[in-house]
Amino acid sequence: MPPDLALSLGAKRAWALDPVWKSALIRLGVVWASLIAVFAADWLRIFDQWWHSSTYGHMLLIPPMVAWLVYQRRTEILQLHPQGWARGILAVMGVLVIWVLGAVSGLDLLRQSAVVALLPATLLVLLGPKVFAGLLFPLCFMAFMVPFGDEFVPALQMVTATLTIALVRLSGIPASIDGVFIDTPAGLFEVAEACSGVKFLIAMIALGAFVAHVAFRSPWRRALFMALCVVAPILANGLRAFGTILAAQYVGAEKAGGIDHLIYGWVFFALVIAAVLGIAWRWFDRPGDDPMLDPQAIDRSKVLARLTGTPSPAWSAMLAIALPLAGSLLWVRAADELTAPLPAQVGLPEVPGWQRDDYAPSYPWQPRAAGADHRRIGRYRNAAGRQVDVFVAQYAAQREGKEAGGAGEGALPSNAGWSWRGNGPSMPSARTDRLRAEQGTERIAETYYRTGALLTGSNGELKLAVIRDRVLLRPRATMLLILSSELHPGRDAAADLAAFRAAIGPVGQWMDRIGSGR
Q1: Residue 115 and residue 133: Cα distance in Å, rounded?
Q2: Counting C-beta atoms within 10 Å of the first and last residue's C-beta, which end of the chain has fewer, N or C?
Q3: Domains of the chain: which residue ranges?
């Protein structure tokens, strides 16, 4: 027999699936397709972020990368024996709990993490621990399909600003820094959210995990390479911001901004990726023909053998998935129907020593509370000339699109000429922010959330309280209060706010009064 024909027949036999594998893959395909259909709304939101957000555009490449990682292991995986494992339902139930918590709290990160994690969790039930172990890295790599990273933006803004001002001063350019604003002779520069470098950082981490697994065998080399993939983009982003400010000293801020988007956006970071891979290249220690797993070692594993135990019938494994799935959907549906009673309207009450004044901010400022059932904004002034702006919003329920602490909600208006400058004075039970308008107006804003007996400025604490109420199917209204004052020469905005708080008494009780319509 000619050698090339023998090789062809051998490849064909390698790909010929036995009936057990065929049945297992059919069941897996049916279950995965059903899960994607049931959670279509979550998957569409994930894809929408991939497609429309530049931060998450690289995630479009993750599914093909996962498929390639599985394809690499095809020969070895087919040597393992797939079998139903009903005890794996504990993993499915754990993931469904996360989805329920995300659904009742309106936290997309939890919901989207859960719908992605359901795929490997159900694979564990349908194909068993040994096949799951063989596919462990591709299944874990699927985590990079979840849109995450926006949570790191404020911290990365501050890190970038700190690196940039250090480089600017080292270069001899006179400059001062206030929060995320850097003032130089060429103009005032802001390290905005888009300049935080988060999109490059999370893309680099995903690429680093892929390369570390494929190109390295040594755990230490993998760890060092991953550390480089974290540090390099952060340092590079600081250098990029410094380069923009340096260019502005010679060509002006407007032209420097154009150079930044053209050169640094497309060329600079590509060079950084090439440099990171070039530095690590000589330490790659995995041969090109090295198999990605050892199926014999997996078969011999005593731990996996004990876990596997007696195979579960196919119908038992699929039923084990269906029952908790149905229960989770019904529970969330009941929670979504919860609505607390609200007054017909809310108003701003009288405050001793303060009078209502015309709301006429120096620069238009309207906090965002898109899903609120009631909103009210107004200004108070006292005899000493102190003035405070008050914004209240009330919600009959907290769900998607109606979240007091949702993304883009609160004191910083979105796309309205305002930017976050930094944290304001520390306050118990409140979040404080310093905001700056594009024409220079600044203000301090204190944000309070109230639900039940809880008064907090922490979005995390609010989320936990909402989760508890909705899981217990307990309807409860939520209120958002923002006290704010503009910064003007000769006037202390923090003192204005302190005087107003002293006049209204305990903030929580004052919010309850507003929320009751009295």
Answers
A1: 20
A2: N
A3: 17-146+301-336, 151-281, 354-515
